[in-house]
Amino acid sequence: MTDLQAISIDQLKGVGPRLREKLYKYGVFNAQDLLFHLPLRYQDRTRITPIGALQLGVDAIIEGEVKVADIAFGKRRSLICKVQDGTGLVTLRFFHFSAAQKKQLTAGTRIRCYGEPRRGGAGLELYHPEYQLLDEQQTATLDERLTPVYPSTEGIGQSVWRKLCVQALGLLDKHPVTELISQHELARFPLSDALRYLHQPPAKARLSLIGEGLHPAQRRLAFEELLAHNLAMLKTRQQAQARGAVALPASQHLQSAFQKQLGFQLTGAQQRVCSEIAADLRLGRPMLRLVQGDVGSGKTVVAAMAALQAIEQGFQVALMAPTEILAEQHYLNFKQWLEPLGLSVGWLVGKLKGKARQQSLAAIANGEAQLVIGTHALFQEEVAYQRLGLAIIDEQHRFGVHQRLALTQKARPEDGHPHQLVMTATPIPRTLAMTAYADLDTSIIDELPPGRTPVNTVVIDNARRAQIIERIAHVCASGQQVYWVCTLIEESEALQAQAAEAAFEELKTALPQLQVALVHGRQKPQEKADIMTAFKAGQTQLLVATTVIEVGVDVPNASLMVIENAERLGLSQLHQLRGRVGRGAIESHCALLYQAPLSRNGRERLRALRESTDGFVIAEKDLMLRGPGEVLGTRQTGLMQFRIADLQRDGDLLDDVKQVADDVAGDSALRDALIQRWLGERTEYEGV
């Protein structure tokens, strides 16, 4: 029996060279790919709606007689037709029309239309509806099933998708799709039946159930898709571990010397996570570990302990951060910690040019730089390590999978795969951790260092700005320090810097008695470092900043943060920013300034932040409000583009998915068949 994968797309009727090329680019190569190209939503073309019963924004089919057809001249020329059916009157409006159309749509013509009613100048209007003309005796047949609307790309219309998918469904009787997870209870709904149902739901199908993604056919496919993603990540892990890694015995000297000079005890959670990392590093296979810890939980110290275990055995360590300001912060911290131990810390970012860059590259290549800190510049082609043993990636969600993997290619072939330690201060909801990071073991630092105080969060209308400025004067007069954070929707650093400069001038004028400083992403690294050092030393009382201070800044004397236009930021980013205060024993506050009126979503975000200081609670809420792509960061969204699964809705399936994935992972043929079916030619997980 021919497999559906063996029936190439150009064997189907209507597929010529040009369409085939477009389908190939879209990732559709064969009949099976078409069957798993699932509809986004459905239109109900199974019954005619009386014009008098039309509802605003609800697609419908109407049938009636054209009473008037004429060209209207306003801001834009349009062809308008008034159609009546005995229950009411509706207007059809065409902004793009031909002379032939105008000739067709004359008074007395019977017509059937499909479209979405909108509010117009003369009541309800249908803009550019699909329509067909009816003869006096003719009654055009209605669809017997709901009409699918498919995800698409430029140059492939809905009618093309529908015709192709109907052909693919026609092949199912002779070439049924192979059941790959027949042992799971969800597989009681046969796969072929689930595909038929979702491509062509019957007229009586409950659109509300399908719309919520809760129909058994959808659940059946969502389970298999989540399983395929999970298996793809496990395959990545197996490929990495198959290369082996150098075993790094426990540190005998450096770690204890480092802890003595710290001047404080590690928390129980830090000690537990350090032990988990040390145990991984001792094995002859690459560590793949994600360390999650809320803001201020002490992840950097844990990273230093791991680095020292590798350095003591003669290996280099690379620490990659997503921004230059965070990389600088790490560089200053690690120099302060490691140079007294006789160790050398290297530095490599995009802005490092000329002789300084060449010196840095040489120190990395000859092994003089034992710990190298930088941005994505660390894995560029020109960078050669003498002996890379451990790669530490900070704020993992800001990097794509390829960027993480590219750094691991820098080890010598004889040393196998470098160990990987991935850190994030953005707590990852369990559902995301089980999918996006299924290739990693997870450790959680779930304890804050002693002496930290919870931050009191208030939400304030920007109309009360003067009161906030008064409060800043009071806080600074008592010897404490304040952050004022400026945000913009635009990612442009130039625009962010302009907004910060305007706030800086305003606050300097309003508070002449204070030392006010400004920091933003367009300043030179040394200038930013000097400003932050002065603030840390207490020489500056009020620091105006863009979101560059989101991560890595530790000033225990700062007890108030004001975030301007807080409604524009995601919850996790707001939580990160808030974590810059409350780092000492002083009672701390975060004021979220918003511009009225607030959207419902914005109101929910700010309320969630006011009500909780638990990063994991906030991360779950953020996932619910913004979706996985946004929570993980735009560079990661390719990883999380599901066809039918939804992490928030289908999270209850993940424990079963993980169990089945562990059972299936050893069967490479079955595993690869599932990955091929759902991920096709996509290669996010390849090249490990």
What are the SSEs and their pairings?
Elements (H helix, E strand, L loop, with lengths): L16 H10 L4 H5 L5 E3 L16 E14 L3 E8 L4 E6 L4 H6 L5 E6 L1 E4 L2 E5 L2 E5 L12 E3 L8 H13 L20 H9 L7 H5 L4 H27 L11 H9 L5 H14 L6 E6 L5 H14 L3 E5 L3 H15 L6 E4 L5 H12 L5 E4 L13 E7 L6 H8 L10 E6 L5 H4 L7 E5 L9 E7 L3 H13 L3 E5 L7 H18 L5 E4 L5 H12 L5 E4 L12 E6 L7 H8 L9 E7 L5 H12 L3 H12 L1 H5 L21 H11 L3 H12 L9
Helix pairs in contact: 5-7, 7-22, 7-23, 9-10, 19-20
Describe this structure in words.
It is a single chain. The protein has 23 helices and 22 strands. A hairpin with a 2-residue loop joins β6 and β7 (123-127). It has a seven-stranded mixed β-sheet with strand order 6-7-4-3-2-5-8, with no helix packed on it. Mean pLDDT is 86; it is low at 633-639 and 683-688. The chain has 688 residues and is an alpha/beta fold. α5 crosses α7 (216-242) and α9 (268-281) runs parallel beside α10 (299-312). It is 37% helix and 18% strand. 41% of the residues are buried.
